[in-house]
Amino acid sequence: MVKWFPQTGWIGKYLKYTHTFERGSEIPPVFNFFTSVGVISAVLQRNVYFQRDLYKLYPAMLIALIAPTGRGKKTTAINIGLDIVKEIKSVRIISEQITPEALVMALVRKGPVLRAGKIVEEDRDATGLLVLPELSVFLEKRDYRSGLVPLITRLADSPEYWSSETICRGEVALKNVALSMLAGSASSWLSGSIPLEAFTGGFMARFLFIVSDGSTIPVAFPKPLDTKLRDSLVRDLSHIAKFQGEVNFAGEDEKAYFQEWYDNQYVSRSFDEKEAAYQERKHDHMLRLAMILAISDRRMEVTIPDMENAINILDENERKMFELFGEIEGKQTPVGENVQVALRFIRKRGQVGRSELLKNMFPRGISAGMLTELIDTLIEAKLVKTRIVKNKEKGRDIVIYKYIGPKTKTNRRRKE
Q: Alpha-carbon distance 71 to 74, whole Å?
């Protein structure tokens, strides 16, 4: 995925600052990249937009960094970005443990405006960056119907006007909403806490879940951050915060490229409800990301390379994100959970012998016959394939299970 990260513009400078290309820390490169995307998303607020016929698409993004407990440096990645974005005083940062009412009140903004020779207080754009290093503190399964999740689902669409008497005491109105989020979570907590209805309700589809297994390279002494480079990032980000107006395609070739990709994406949507819900909004995720890549280079026009990089990055992330979705579903039933346990073991090893897998699964009460059923499920899903190895010494064949994973639909064609 790193090969599609920009090495120029604000994001390129941020990735240099975080030593992403040289692996100067144990933060996964994808976490540094999407943290930088989240920072730009927050400072742009509702200042820029992409016109999508019936609606305006704003750059506000909900990003969640997902990794196993104790790995991935999720909080470290978020805090590095937070240290920079907090210097931009126009960005309201919301980071406390929050209730629906508190979130609404945190987004309410008023300011002095000169009207008919008088200074009056008026509502300002309800924008903010919600920072949640531990998503589990913010969202529990029991909260799904309590108002918080439906509220975020609604605010994630950046409505021009929103009000509710049921959440706050009295009517509280929000004008011109743009809610961005940088969150972190352990994959084990997320897979055990999100109900399946979160997919069909649209909550999960509005997020970008950035999934990593954590760093595979130990870094005992991470490289220090360059303070001069940080100061340069702050100055550049303050200029980006002043961008205003409509972002367009650079030309007719860009429109044709998007049309072809959109059509292909439309006809190849998954039959899986969880994946399909995300794919219904993938074009918005892609355009937001492409918009941010362009603005990182101080351009108000989206080019084909911007879209190609955005598509490639999203496609690459989808493989692990959809596996996470499968784990969430699997946790709902014992059989589904066992399928996910077997899949994770095979994926981690790359390939594994049947006897070794059975030994690993036996403490969960899985018999040889039950393992065969689990493997048949994974084979039918085209996640695993079987091969037979002749073993003359033992006089019997050895069954090997190999992880092949889901196929991505990456369009990597680049116009010359």
A: 8
CATH, domain 2-246, list 2.40.160, 1.10.287, 3.30.460, 3.40.50: 3.40.50
CB 183 within 8 A of CB 38: no
Whether 63 has a pLDDT exceeding 90, the answer reads yes
The one-letter amino acid code at 308 reads: E
CA dihedral 201, 203, 204, 209 (to 10 degrees): 170
* Nearest residue to 286 via CA among 57, 15, 12, 81: 57
Quote the distance between the C-alpha of residue 133 and its chain's center: 14
Angstrom distance (rounded) from CA 412 to CA 308: 7
Alpha carbon distance 408, 212 (integer Å): 17
**Dist CA 357 CA 362 (whole Å):** 9
- pLDDT tens digit sequence for 176-223: 999 999 999 988 777 666 776 777 678 888 999 999 988 778 899 999
SS3 115: strand
Backbone angles phi, psi at 68, to 5 degrees: -60, 155
Non-local CB neighbours of 256 within 8 Å, separated by 6+ positions: none
Residue 204 to residue 190: CA distance in whole angstroms = 11
Which residue's structure tokens are 């069954």? 399
The pLDDT assigned to 240 comes to 97
Question: Domain residues of the chain, as ranges?
Answer: 2-246, 334-403
Is 139 in contact with 99 (CB distance < 8 Å)? no
Amino acid found at 100: P
Topology, domain 334-403: Arc Repressor Mutant, subunit A (1.10.10)
Alpha carbon distance 240, 177 (integer Å): 19
Structure tokens at 225: 């951050």
Section 16-44 average pLDDT: 95
- Greater confidence (413 vs 387) lies with 387
pLDDT at 140 over 80: no
48, two tokens: 């820029």
